[in-house]
Design brief:
This protein has 160 residues and is an alpha+beta fold. It has one domain. It has helices at residues 6-32, 34-44, 48-60, 66-79, 101-108, 112-134; strands spanning 83-89, 92-99, 138-144, 153-159. It has a 4-stranded antiparallel beta sheet. Helix 3 crosses helix 4 (66-79), helix 3 packs across helix 6 (112-134) and helix 4 (66-79) packs antiparallel against helix 6 (112-134). The longest helix has 27 residues, at 6-32. It is globular. The relative contact order is 0.14.
Length: 160
């Protein structure tokens, strides 16, 4: 039996993760409708970022504060194949996302009409929960979104 490279294994799990996320949503939608699927998805994304943030926090040996939040977010976005840039601000930082793999999947699967609703609901929850895992003195705001027709998503993280 041939062995897979580490990169092939990573790609296998990335694709499986993305496929299972979309597949369960579509199956719930088939049975209960889009709105019910979105409500359940919101509940999932109130928990998933906690799991991910805590795992990355442990892997990076980062604890609390703005620097740990920024490092964890850039790690997460890189692992999930986002294209982005970070800009430090006087009272925090912002992340500008030029390419979102989740939005791209919605477009590719001819579900772009749902991308705005899903992106608005899930991104607000996901990044707010992620932020709370690192720094209770930082507030997350989603300024612009690709799924709403903007050129990029703009995520701001400001100290309160």
């Amino acid at each position: 039996m041939e062995h897979l490279t580490d990169q092939q294994i990573i790609e296998f799990f990335k694709r499986s993760y993305k496929a299972s996320d979309g597949l369960w949503f579509m199956k719930v939608e088939e049975k209960y409708g889009f709105n019910a699927a979105l409500e359940i998805d919101k509940e999932v994304w109130k928990v998933m970022p906690k799991i991910q943030a805590r795992m990355i926090k442990a892997m990076l040996r980062k604890s609390e504060g703005e620097a740990a939040l920024l490092k964890s977010l850039t790690t997460k976005l890189t692992l999930e194949d986002f294209k982005f840039k970070v800009e430090q601000k006087e009272n925090g930082f912002q992340i500008q996302i030029s390419d979102c793999p989740w939005h791209n999947l919605m477009v590719k699967s001819v579900r772009e009409k749902y991308s705005e609703k899903v992106g608005t609901a899930i991104c607000n929850i996901e990044y707010s929960v992620w932020t709370s895992e690192f720094d209770e003195n930082t507030q997350f705001t989603l300024r612009t979104q690709k799924c709403k027709g903007s050129k990029h998503c703009l995520l701001t993280f400001n100290r309160r």
